[in-house]
Write a structure and sequence with these properties.
Elements lengths: L6 E2 L10 E6 L3 E2 L8 E2 H9 L11 E6 L4 E6 L5 E2 H8 L5 H20 L2 E2 L8 E3 L6 E3 L6 E2 L18 H6 L4 H18 L8 H11 L4 H10 L10 H5 L2 H4 L18
Antiparallel strand pairs: 1-2, 2-6, 3-4, 5-6, 7-9, 8-11, 9-10
Helix pairs in contact: 3-5, 5-7
Keywords: ATP-binding, Kinase, Nucleotide-binding, Phosphoprotein, Serine/threonine-protein kinase, Transferase
Catalytic activity: L-seryl-[protein] + ATP = O-phospho-L-seryl-[protein] + ADP + H(+); L-threonyl-[protein] + ATP = O-phospho-L-threonyl-[protein] + ADP + H(+)
InterPro entries: Kinase-like_dom_sf, PIM1/2/3, PIM_Ser/Thr_kinase, Prot_kinase_dom
Length: 265
């Protein structure tokens, strides 16, 4: 379990690795390093997974193209579970040091994608694999991704509805980086509060967080900046990476529920 809609899991022995399959109708795009065209998601993954690889992104091992479907063979890391499942099992907010570790790695993964000219466009807990003991993450599912156009407005829906930034709701357009930052802010709120839905008003966000689990001043500052209604008021990803909240050292919680270790996706 634990994969997003449209993704089918399978376990196959392949050089000691577990892999899963995802199938989608073919949408071709041209790759300069390919003699033939490849499905769009494959093209994005070829760019993202080229050496040097990012440890916070699930790696594509191979792909198969048929006349009707494409099969993308990905690594399946042992002991990782879907972050949304981990949040559900916790039945409450995650610890702030856990959230800090997740966000730090997601920002690194997104910056890697952007450096390769790829816009993931669906950053949310359901697209994060999480290792409960080490706190390591891997970003998955590039099905909603696109070629990164930093100064262009995208006019198609951004990933899952839970990721929709205000500018899409109001104007039906958005830019890659501000929309990604909004998704990061919303994911921070979800992990720190245990609440999936929330109002966009800053006062409501602050009150709901503090009423459930008090958040540090630095953590609240970053959430509120990421969830600014106007895209121009949101920080850049590089600013988030350098934010004081993310500069604090990682701490591994001593009381992590070891039952998560035995779970498989």
């Amino acid at each position: 379990y634990g994969f997003p809609n449209g993704v089918q899991a399978g376990q196959v022995t392949c050089s000691g690795s577990h892999i899963f399959f995802t199938s989608a109708f073919l949408t071709f795009c041209y790759q300069q390093n390919e003699e033939k065209q490849v499905p769009y998601e494959v093209g994005l993954l070829l760019q993202v997974c080229a050496e040097p690889k990012c440890p916070n992104i699930v790696h594509m091992l191979d792909y198969i193209i048929t006349t009707s479907f494409s099969f993308i063979i990905m690594e399946r890391p042992e002991s990782y579970i879907n972050l949304s499942d981990f949040m559900s099992d916790e039945m409450g907010p995650m610890k702030e040091e856990q959230v800090r570790g997740v966000i730090r790695q997601v920002v690194e993964a997104v910056l890697h994608c952007h450096s390769r000219g790829v816009f993931h466009n669906d950053i949310r807990p359901g697209n994060i694999l999480y290792e409960p003991v080490t706190g390591q993450i891997k970003l998955i599912d590039f099905d909603s991704g696109d070629v990164l156009q930093e100064n262009m407005h995208y006019t198609f829906p951004p990933g899952a509805p839970e990721c929709y930034p205000p500018e899409w709701k109001f104007y039906k357009k958005y830019k890659a980086e501000p929309a990604t930052v909004w998704s990061l802010g919303k994911m921070m709120f979800q992990m720190l509060s245990g609440i999936i839905e929330f109002d966009d008003e800053k006062e409501s966000i602050m009150n709901r967080l503090n009423s459930i689990s008090p958040v540090s001043k630095e953590g609240m500052d970053l959430i509120l900046k990421c969830l600014s209604i106007h895209p121009k008021d949101r920080p850049f990803l590089k600013d988030i990476q350098m934010h004081s909240w993310l500069q604090e050292p990682d701490k591994v919680a001593d009381n992590i529920d070891w039952i998560h270790v035995s779970k498989s996706i």
